[in-house]
């Protein structure tokens, strides 16, 4: 049985800390594809932790992790993009709420994979549109630069989510499904 989304216990805090640290430390690793935009494998971490622990963990870890990445790489936090990463993690964690979805126990159905893909892709697009709006409205960034950034970031984040994030969650569930078939002989 899944625990409450808002139950803040030691396990939840440690999970958020681990995901945020991993996301923050690996967020600057990537292949440049445009102005201040890279293909970043770290986005798969939000998919994994969101799916396994829920939208609250995904949101919090995405926000803290992005803040860490910004501080490590430039010394300045881009709040719109940090909130965008938080929204991405939250959307990817929505699948956690579905009845019968439990990769920790090896339970993932085809319909869960479809919903996970839809929520992840929609989350990526909406979060980057939010970041675009935030940068134009509050940071005074030029919209033409942001159109390129948001377009490239959307495509690259979706690719990483589909190629790394979804298969990682499915692989984890498959591994746990096999392990659950073991019996103890006395």
Would you write up a description of this structure?
This protein has 186 residues and is mainly alpha-helical. The protein has one domain (10-96, 106-177): Orthogonal Bundle (Arp2/3 complex 21 kDa subunit ARPC3), CATH 1.10.1760. Helix content is 70%, strand content 4%. The chain contains six helices and two strands, in the order αββααααα. A two-stranded antiparallel sheet has the order 1-2. The mean pLDDT is 91.
Identify the notable features of this structure and list them briefly:
single chain; 186 residues; mainly alpha; Arp2/3 complex 21 kDa subunit ARPC3; two-stranded antiparallel sheet; 4% strand; globular; transmembrane; ECF transporter S component; ECF_substrate-spec-like; membrane; transmembrane helix
Which value, in Å, is the CA radius of gyration? 17 Å
- Find the structural class using helix and strand composition: mainly alpha
Q: What is the N-to-C succession of helices and strands? A: HEEHHHHH
Shape descriptor: globular
Low-confidence stretches: none
What is the overall number of helices? 6
**CATH class annotation:** Mainly Alpha
Q: Summarize the biggest pleated sheet.
A: 2 strands, antiparallel
* Sheet with most strands: strand arrangement: 1-2
Structurally, how many domains make up the residues? Answer: 1
* CATH A-level architecture: Orthogonal Bundle
User: What share of the residues does DSSP label as strand, in percent?
Assistant: under 5%
Overall mean pLDDT stands at: 91
- Estimate the helix proportion, in percent: 55-70%
Number of strands: 2
């Amino acid at each position: 049985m899944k625990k409450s989304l808002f139950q803040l216990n030691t396990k939840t805090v440690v999970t958020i800390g681990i995901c945020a640290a991993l996301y923050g430390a690996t967020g600057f690793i990537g292949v440049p594809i445009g102005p201040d935009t890279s293909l970043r494998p770290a986005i798969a971490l939000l998919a994994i932790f969101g799916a396994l622990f829920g939208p609250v963990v995904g949101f919090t870890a995405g926000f803290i992790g992005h803040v860490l990445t910004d501080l490590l790489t430039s010394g300045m936090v881009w709040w719109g993009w940090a909130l965008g990463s938080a929204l991405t993690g939250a959307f990817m964690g929505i699948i956690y709420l579905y009845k019968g979805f439990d990769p920790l126990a090896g339970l993932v159905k085809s319909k869960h994979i479809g919903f996970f893909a839809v929520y992840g892709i929609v989350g990526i697009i909406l979060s980057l549109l939010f970041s675009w709006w935030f940068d134009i409205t509050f940071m005074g960034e030029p919209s033409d630069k942001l159109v390129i950034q948001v377009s490239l970031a959307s495509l690259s984040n979706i690719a990483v989510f589909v190629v790394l994030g979804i298969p990682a969650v499915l692989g984890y569930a498959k591994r746990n499904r096999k392990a659950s078939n073991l019996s103890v002989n006395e």
